Amino acid sequence: MTASDLAGELKVIAFDVFGTVVDWHGGIRAEVERMLPGVDGSAFALGWRAGYAPAMQAVMARIAAGEGGFTLVDELHLHILDDVLRDFGAQERLDRDGRRELNTAWHRLPAWPDAVQGLARLKARYTICTLSNGNIGLLTEMAKRAGLPWDCILSAEVFKAYKPDPRVYLGAAGVFNVAPTELMLVAAHADDLAAARACGLRTAYVERPLEFGPGRPKDVTPNPDNTFHARDILALARQLGC
Amino acid sequence: MTASDLAGELKVIAFDVFGTVVDWHGGIRAEVERMLPGVDGSAFALGWRAGYAPAMQAVMARIAAGEGGFTLVDELHLHILDDVLRDFGAQERLDRDGRRELNTAWHRLPAWPDAVQGLARLKARYTICTLSNGNIGLLTEMAKRAGLPWDCILSAEVFKAYKPDPRVYLGAAGVFNVAPTELMLVAAHADDLAAARACGLRTAYVERPLEFGPGRPKDVTPNPDNTFHARDILALARQLGC
Hints:
2 copies of one chain form a homodimer.
Chain A: H1 3-9, E1 12-15, H2 24-35, H3 41-50, H4 52-64, H5 73-87, H6 96-103, H7 115-123, E2 127-132, H8 136-146, E3 152-155, H9 156-159, H10 166-175, E4 183-187, H11 190-198, E5 202-206, E6 228-230, H12 233-239
Parallel strand pairs in A: 1-2, 1-4, 2-3, 4-5, 5-6
């Protein structure tokens, strides 16, 4: 199949959000440095993000064991924040309201420079949606502030399951009543894309070499298993003829 | 409280969709007359819509009895269509594909003339979302075609409960982490608004005197229990200072 055939078969393009569409490292660093002057904002952002995977795994393990319910990412972020503040010796510097304010920095993350224009081009031809473990309220506020022109906000919260659970990828296909091959996931993360491919989705990798900040460049080597590999969302739109 | 105080307290405005934002009678009539020449499109549209309430009640009764699961409105509409085609002696005129095509007429309903501009004005100040029993895919395609600028598409499908179940209204407040009084439902239907008020939401009634077509004008007498009463969505935006 040529890229043009594939582009014609697609109906819906779903996007991972954190790191793929928005710059969590830059956004969190800036808000940390504003609210906690003197703290290393980059290290703080990396620590906060590093807490996410184990916290999410713990939630999934509790759900699998029948001991816990679905938890919003806003709540996870707030729990992790307590730990990170302690690691940075800053636990006395933010009260409850301050922690809540800093926690909503995840709602205010800036879009990567190509994202708004790239999404607008893709939207002219495809249905475009989020497919993120972030909760609906978080993703909605982020989109409104950053001008992300989603047709629809889909979240783990809709499916009561988190990526990489197949229910999320197949659930998105079900929402739009399309075959898995008519749905493509765009992400900057190999594990997310691999899980989507296992469900039969098309996949597009976008390079975000500075996802973890300028001090930690990422390996963005192409993987031929992905349907598309693009420098950014605007480049992906061009590959799709948009 | 003055209208201005109320407008300042609000954060999110949720909209009923069928009849409130889009003209189901006009849209269905036009598609029926296109696909089934000679059939009375207005009577067919009224019959199809009349089948909705009992079908939805049957689904809710099955769920309450533990005998059934959540059903998408697309599926309900398709079942009702079979009955309506029979009532109009037209069951032989549409095969399976034809029925599916006519069924998606509900995805292609036209917005009322004031809706797009009114929503755009409200969106500049508030978060605006759908709050409909329609499924997410249906509402997304409708929004894309009609240019409805939702910040977020919320549906009974997210909450796995249908209006007027309190889980839908309170679930919407939960999604955005706001108090019920910071959320307002806009609808052209007294029963939907009454259920929202019972959950503590603000309510706005919009007149849609021709919801059931020119032959069946609706009583649009104001009910003082609603927070706002407006001729249409543009008039509501003006009342809110948008």
